[in-house]
Design brief:
Length: 471
């Protein structure tokens, strides 16, 4: 197949893993940035010159989409043909996720899919699917009269998951190491009301940025930093997605508050590294202890996100050296990659300085390339943040991306941070109920194989369902 086609599909898969965020229940389950909410639905399309599907519109459209998402060899797909199959309004709605190829790549990344019951009603169809990890998903499609796709939505199906026992079973059934905790937080102390493996040390992924947030807030509070101080984006310190600052020109100014907002709201990796460069790695490592991590050594040394990518997926990578190294040797390894840069917009993935396909498919956790902690550590981190320095600002930052749709009468405040890497999923919510009681709910999943976007969405939907059990 043409190399350009392979690269386009690869880019869409990497985008699905790295750039989309948060938690959502759409075709793009929002694994990192929270930027693509919605179900992909559109109004009736305008005229188009793209070739229509043959046969009854919804039947032919459904056949086409199912053919794409169940293919045993995604590299045989034609990205241009996929994108041209979208009606204009749908194409516009999906522009920020790479066109129709984006959600198709996300659904593919959760395979191999099993197709179940299929129903059609006029120009709409519903198809029951199971992911490669047996997560139940409902796929809804809509066609135009002339045979184009005008709506696509893939939603996890959590019917029947209505108790802590059933949520434990649903999470465990995904076939990954799993943790969960729901805790009442009072005066800086977490009191679990339900937990599953909550003391197990598992990958935190970008939830580790809570420690950076704590260190920044402390520096502001002690006067060595201010929220309006300007930082400067440099090519030498740009990281890989998620985020947006990696695309900013050299010399772009950004305030500490702007970088902090981006670090939490869209999990901007370059923003995170700007903050770490400013306050120092030692400040973050100290904060790990202050914020109650049970095993601070698991987060020492504390890599920047750029270092994380170079260690695990650089060319060459440093997995073997990192895996077997003690703390001081790991510090030496990080010092040795001080000047290794990342091209955040590679022209050719084959010659890029990062293995972008590996980032989406080859977990780093088996080689120790991650940030590690437990679900109980996550709760203690939130408890420290909301009782620590600059807590009012910290709460504002955490609430920028709530990561869930909740009843505001029941939950007037929701803060959120999640994380995702190949094989690693973490999600955490700080909730305040109508009585003023704070709660933390956190989950982690880890597998030596990639966890698909729809599996991620299913896990988060299960966890969000437990919010109603908190009393």
């Amino acid at each position: 197949m043409p190399t350009s086609r392979r690269y386009a599909i690869l880019a869409a898969a990497v985008t699905a893993t790295l750039t989309l965020a948060g938690c959502s229940a759409g075709v793009d389950p929002l694994l990192e940035s929270g930027a693509a909410r919605g179900d992909g639905s559109t109004t009736e399309p305008a005229d188009t010159t793209a070739a229509p599907a043959a046969g009854a519109p919804i039947t032919a459209v459904t056949d086409t989409v199912l053919g794409w998402i169940t293919t045993p060899d995604p590299t045989t797909l034609d990205p241009a043909a996929i994108d041209s199959f979208a009606a204009p309004e749908l194409a516009q709605a999906l522009a920020q996720v790479g066109g129709l190829l984006g959600p198709v790549a996300q659904i593919l990344a959760s395979g191999p899919l099993t197709v179940g019951e299929r129903t059609e009603d006029g120009l709409e169809s519903t198809v029951r699917l199971s992911t490669g990890r047996n997560a139940p998903v409902t796929l809804r499609l809509r066609a135009t009269e002339d045979g184009l796709l005008s709506g696509i939505q893939a939603l996890p199906d959590t019917e029947g998951v209505d108790s802590f026992a059933s949520s434990d079973a649903a999470l465990t059934a995904l076939g990954a190491r799993t943790s969960y905790v729901a805790s009442r937080v009072t005066d800086g102390t977490c009191t679990p009301v339900h937990s599953l493996n909550a003391d197990d040390s598992l990958p935190l992924a970008s939830v580790a940025k809570l420690y950076v947030l704590g260190a920044v807030a402390r520096a502001v509070d002690n006067g060595t930093l201010s929220w309006d101080e300007q930082l400067t984006v440099t090519d030498a310190r740009k990281s890989a997605p998620s985020g947006q600052l990696q695309f900013a020109p050299e010399g772009t100014p950004v305030t500490v508050r702007e970088a902090t907002d981006a670090m939490i709201a869209i999990s901007d990796n370059t923003a995170t590294d700007l903050l770490m460069d400013r306050i120092g790695r030692d400040a973050v490592e100290s904060e790990v202890t202050i914020m109650g991590a049970a095993n601070p050594a698991a987060l020492t040394p504390f890599p920047t996100t750029r270092e994380f990518f170079v260690l695990g997926w650089g060319r060459p990578d440093l997995r073997a050296q990192w895996r077997d190294a003690d703390t001081q040797t790991r510090r030496d390894i990080l010092a040795g990659i001080e000047n290794r840069t990342i091209d955040s917009e590679p022209v050719d993935p084959v010659t890029a300085d990062l293995d972008y396909q590996g980032i989406a498919t080859r977990p780093g956790t088996p080689d120790g390339v991650e940030w590690f902690g437990s679900a109980n550590d996550i709760c203690r981190a939130y408890a420290a943040l909301i009782t620590g320095p600059q807590s009012d600002v910290v709460r504002q930052v955490l609430a920028l991306n709530p990561g869930a749709e909740v009843d505001p009468a029941r939950w007037p405040y929701v803060g959120y941070k999640n994380g995702n890497a190949a094989g690693d999923v973490s999600g955490s919510w700080l909730l305040t109920d109508a009585t003023g009681q704070d709660w933390v709910v956190a989950t982690q999943l880890q597998s030596d194989e990639a966890i698909g976007p729809l599996d991620n969405a299913y896990a988060f939907a299960v966890v969000q369902g437990t919010f109603e059990l908190l009393r």
